[in-house]
Design a protein that fits this description.
The structure holds two protein chains of two kinds.
Chain A: H1 2-43, E1 45-48, E2 54-57, H2 61-67, H3 70-101, H4 108-120, H5 123-134, H6 139-146, H7 161-186, H8 190-198, H9 203-214, H10 216-231, H11 235-241, H12 254-264, H13 268-298
Antiparallel strand pairs in A: 1-2
Helix pairs in contact in A: 1-13, 2-13, 3-7, 3-10, 4-7, 5-7, 5-11, 10-13, 12-13
Chain B: H1 2-32, H2 37-42, H3 55-62, H4 66-98, H5 104-115, H6 120-132, H7 139-143, H8 150-161, H9 165-173, H10 178-189, H11 191-207, H12 210-215, H13 224-234, H14 239-272
Helix pairs in contact in B: 3-14, 4-8, 4-11, 5-8, 9-10, 11-14, 13-14
Classes of the chains: A mainly alpha, B mainly alpha.
Keywords (chain B): Cell membrane, Membrane, Transmembrane, Transmembrane helix, Transport
Domain ABC transmembrane type-1 (chain B): 71-260
Membrane topology (chain B): Multi-pass membrane protein
Chain lengths: 299, 274
């Protein structure tokens, strides 16, 4: 009898477990697991979406098609250029600001509140504000002119347009990573610094030999997050170019290209294949990064 | 520490300069929203409007009848998504941390795996699934796919694992079942974690652009980010209206952020640090 009591209790426990998990399992199943499997199916099919939806198996043809597509090359190049410039700059800026804010600074919490503002503001609004500031006779050019620096056609010049978005993105994302660095800095035990001081290490030595090495795991996290975020650039370039990726494809990013193929050209299978490629690139870069950071740790 | 004293003025100037760089675009946009178009076009650099006017705000609500609707849609969608997330993520996090059931570990592993999959993969299939459900251009289409979030399930699980067990055991002795314990004991004590989660989820939903862009084509169903984008197309050089609309969109988010700032920063460190 005692045994059956325990059994029924266990069953009750299991039942409430599933009950608690039910909404999550349902939603993640339908809108996450199913889409992941579905996307592999789509990527290998030609999809007719107007009228009756129909699928025709085409194997890897979508993938081979992408290698011959000049717009894929352009989008990939823009996206890579964007990642390679934005990620290092925003990481170093975040680190520098965090190191300064970690010192005995008055009004620390005010600076944090102010710096964090762009993070909570939508990309749509930030992009509009910046487009207006970038306007050829707008605020930025006015300021540059006043101090005697060259002005640019920030929105219309294909050589500059992507850089305009980079500046905006670094400005709005660096503070988020700064907060993460700040948290990590607080976790470094003070006795390490005290011991180093006794050994005669100056402030620079301590920064190089204690602070930066101990920040490595967080830096890894921040670089990975930065890469994932920048690879997925969409809102800014969509709004900036009115969805076209212009001027002259200068702001055409990979996600924008996927969006265009899927929802403008209704070329769903091809767009799904491109999305799959992007996801694989992101996962690959993350994996390589993890490897690199581990190797450094071993040395 | 003496050295940092010596460099202190430099550090303060860097921080103040950066604060100005951060604040200026907001201040500039806010001021433009109270300027008549003529003053903006003229290109003067006055931060304080010389001819202060409310006309821009009146205009966007009256001349563009859909603007109020977009605001309503955004509030509705963000509030529903936030409430469901708080409930469902907490339930799942609690079950994963505390309830023993077969498959518990497997589900947890699945949620961790899901965290690593880039969102673009699910974009197009989700669109097709919503289409076949007949949920394009609907509130449920915007809300339902976002009512749970793997990141916050993970966060809630970590939170509940460190939760004192004794309270729940006492509740069980008092004859409360799991569900009652969860509502009456566990959730009220999880308020800080819920607050942090609420802010993040709300901001995410409030600012989301790609998902609404994908599934909404009826302007009456637009949320503010989308509305704002078409607004820009309509009023291409009416920066006074565009800035007023941007401020209506931004101020609620900034107010919530300022109010909950403490939780906000805390939760960044929570999700980021380790």
């Amino acid at each position: 009898m005692f045994k059956s009591l325990i059994k029924s209790q266990q069953r009750q426990e299991a039942f409430s477990g599933y009950l608690f998990m039910f909404p999550t399992l349902l939603i993640l199943g339908v809108f996450l697991v199913l889409p992941i499997l579905f996307s592999i199916f789509l990527a290998t099919h030609r999809v007719q979406i107007l009228g009756e939806v129909s699928y025709r198996f085409v194997g890897l043809r979508n993938l081979t098609r992408s290698t011959a597509d000049p717009r894929v090359g352009i989008a990939l190049r823009n996206t890579l250029e964007y990642v390679l410039i934005v990620v290092p700059v925003q990481t170093i800026l975040a680190l520098a600001l965090a190191l300064i804010l970690d010192l005995k600074i008055r009004g620390k919490s005010w600076f944090r509140v102010i710096f964090f503002m762009p993070t909570v503001t939508s990309a749509a609004v930030l992009t509009l504000i910046f487009m207006w500031i970038y306007n050829s006779n707008g605020l930025l050019n006015n300021l540059l002119e006043k101090v005697g620096l060259p002005t640019y056609n920030w929105l219309g010049d294909p050589n500059v347009a992507l850089k305009s978005i980079m500046i905006m993105n670094i400005w709005s994302t660096a503070p988020f990573f700064m907060v993460i660095y700040l948290a990590a800095l607080q976790d470094i035990p003070t006795y390490l610094y005290e011991a180093a001081k006794l050994d005669g290490a100056n402030e620079m030595d301590r920064l190089w030999n204690i602070t930066l090495p101990l920040l490595k795991p967080v830096t890894f996290f921040i670089v990975v997050m930065g890469i994932i975020g920048t690879f997925q650039l969409f809102d800014q370039s969509y709004i900036f170019s009115g969805g076209s990726g212009g001027p002259n494809n200068a702001t055409l990013t990979f996600v924008l290209l996927i969006y265009q193929y899927a929802f403008k050209n209704l070329d769903i299978g091809y767009a799904a294949a491109l999305a799959l490629v992007l996801a694989l690139i992101i996962m690959l870069v993350t994996a390589i990064q993890r490897r690199l950071f581990k190797d450094e740790k071993a040395n | 520490m003496k050295r940092s004293h010596f460099l202190q003025p430099l550090f303060y100037s860097i921080l103040i300069a950066y604060a100005i760089i951060t604040l200026f675009p907001f201040a500039w946009a806010l001021s433009a929203s109270f300027k008549p178009l003529a003053e903006i076009v003229e290109g003067g650099m006055h931060l304080i409007p010389q001819h202060f006017t409310w006309e821009n705000y009146q205009h966007i609500f009256t001349a563009s009848p859909l603007f109020g609707r977009w605001l309503f849609n955004s509030v509705l969608v963000a509030v529903f998504i936030t409430s469901f997330n708080l409930l469902f993520n907490s339930m799942a996090g609690y079950a994963l941390a505390r309830i023993h059931f077969p498959g518990n570990n497997l589900i947890f592993a699945l949620i961790l795996a899901v965290l690593m999959v880039p969102g673009q993969i699910t974009l197009i299939p989700t669109f097709l699934i919503l289409k076949s459900l007949g949920w394009l251009n609907t509130y449920q289409g915007l809300i339902v796919p976002s009512v749970v979030n793997a990141t916050f399930i993970f966060m809630m699980r970590q939170f509940f694992i460190n939760f004192p067990k004794e309270l729940e055991e006492a509740a069980a002795l008092d004859g409360l079942n799991r569900w009652q314990t969860f509502w009456q004991i566990v959730l009220p004590l999880a308020k800080p974690a819920l607050a942090a989660q609420a802010i993040f989820v709300f901001m995410g939903a409030w600012n989301n652009f790609l998902m609404p862009l994908m599934i909404l084509s009826d302007p009456a169903m637009f949320t503010l980010p989308l509305g704002l984008n078409t607004f820009k197309g309509q009023y291409i050089s009416y920066w006074n209206y565009i800035m007023a609309a941007s401020m209506v969109f931004t101020l609620p988010a900034l107010a919530i952020y300022a109010f909950f700032n403490r939780y906000f920063i805390h939760s960044v460190t929570f999700t980021g640090g380790k």
